[in-house]
Amino acid sequence: MVAVAITDWPEGERPREKLLQRGTASLSDAELLAIFLRTGVTGKSAVDLARELLTRFGNLTQLVAASEADFCATKGMGQAKFVQLQAVLEMSRRALKEEMQRGDALNTPRAVRDYLQLLLGGRQQEVFLVLFLDTQHRVIASEELFHGTLGQTSVYPREVVKRALAHNAAAVILAHNHPSGVAEPSQSDRMLTDALKQALSLVDVRVLDHFVVAAGHTLSFAEKGLI
Fold first, then answer.
1. Which of 40, 134, 174, 182 is 20 to 30 A distant from 153 in Cα terms?
2. What are residue 176's DSSP bridge partners?
3. pLDDT tens, 71-127?
4. What are the backbone angles phi and psi of residue 65, rounded to the nearest 5°?
């Protein structure tokens, strides 16, 4: 079967032209990925190749979190494309971090969620991260403090307090991922949040929120009334 080249598609359906005419939100995941890929391979257009990648990895989150070996195992993908993808991701993370640093993190919830999703959404190891904030709730620093195996990590309140004092933080936002893909907080997540709130309150540092991040979804303790 011979793939129809994207240049032979109706102009309004070509991913690049569609983006320019209707905006990024009008494109599917495969179309966005096709723009990044630029070209397909023999017998497959860029969109066909993008669909194959999404099918192989499950979704965009898992694709961007893939190892170099797994990514390059797909025909048409190589180290150059892997490096380009990682550069795009890092630019996105830095842009979102800059946005959070310019203003009140509580007034830019989309930036916080997007940043955490990019950083933690596809990780296969559980990671506990803290955003340290100043008195105006601007982000001072973002640190991954603890790492564990699937679904299990040890978080020490004393270490979180030490880092908060080192940054002279007035408040923090906590976050960790659930590699299982389920964003609902466990009972141990709630107990940990309470323990950290209590420990940080002793040095006048507020816990503003705790986010649980899973692939494609981020849950806020504050929005759920859990903090």
1. 134
2. 128, 212
3. 898 888 889 989 988 898 888 878 877 777 776 766 667 778 888 988 888 788 899
4. -90, 0
Residues 6 or more apart whose CB falls under 8 angstroms from that of 45 comprise 3, 4, 5, 6, 34
Cα angle: 73, vertex 78, 82; to 5 degrees: 100
DSSP 49-109: HHHHHHHHHSSHHHHHT--HHHHHTSTT--HHHHHHHHHHHHHHHHHHHHHHHHS-GGG-H
Tens digit of each residue's pLDDT (9 = 90 or more) over 182-216: 888 989 899 999 999 999 999 999 999 999 998 87
Give the separation between CA 223 and CA 227, rounded to whole angstroms: 9
Query: Can you tell me which residue has the tokens 């898992």?
Result: 62
At residue 55, what are phi and psi to the nearest 5 degrees? -65, -40
Residue 183, sorted as left (phi over 0), alpha (psi -120 to 50) or beta, turns out to be alpha
Q: Is 208 helix (H, G, I), strand (E, B) or coil?
A: strand
